[in-house]
Amino acid sequence: MKRGEFLRSLGLSTSTLMAFYCLGTTMTACGSKDDDPNPDPDPNPGTGSGSGISGTTTGTAINFTVDLTNSAVSKLKTNGESIITGDVLVAKTTAGSYVALTRICTHEGNEVRYRSTSNDVFCQTHGSTFTTAGAVTNGPATTALKTYNVTVSSDGNTLTVKA
Ligand code: FES
Fold first, then answer.
1. Which residues of the chain have pLDDT under 70?
2. What dihedral angle (degrees, nearest 10) is formed by the CA atoms of 105, 111, 112, 113?
3. Considering the domain 53-162 in this protein, what is its CATH number?
4. Sequence spans of domains, the chain
């Protein structure tokens, strides 16, 4: 007897049966993110081996390094690219300088993103905009974003971001 026949013999409804199928070990019947043949690179790389990021990326003691030779974060070598790791947005501006700011909007705490098209920082929740130095350029936010110091190693391959 197949699994579906067995479950039907127990008198379970169709929706209940679907739930059982979805709980299968492969999750293929319901489709999972892993089905994407061309997944985008993780826009929010975490820390740990393989991420290219090591150190503290959350809280008040921000202090981490970004290994730009690591493919997970190497896009930061390109002007106009950015990543978010932990609580921090790191961007290489269209002018080629590195900036790091809190990713947490000062309005209501939603996530901000770097926009290369306007070389600014944008919160899509209510439309606040900030300069890459954190200053408010459009509300409703009224408080600047916290910024972090970014230093680049002499070989250009490592960023150090510190509070
Ligand atoms: S939370 Fe960012 S503008 Fe409201």
1. 1-49
2. 170
3. 2.102.10.10
4. 3-35, 53-162
By most ligand atoms within 8 Å of CB, the mutation choice from 101, 121, 128, 129 for ligand 1 is 128
Residue nearest to atom 3 of ligand 1 (CA): 126
% of the chain residues with pLDDT over 90 = 69
Cα torsion 46, 76, 113, 133: sign: positive
* Residue in 104, 110, 129, 145 to alter for ligand 1 test, most ligand atoms within 8 A of Cβ: 110
DSSP 139: S
**What's residue 112's pLDDT?**
98
pLDDT in tens, 117-128: 999 999 999 999
| Gap between the Cα atoms of 141 and 150, Å rounded | 24
Q: Report the distance separating Cα 51 and Cα 42, nearest Å.
A: 10
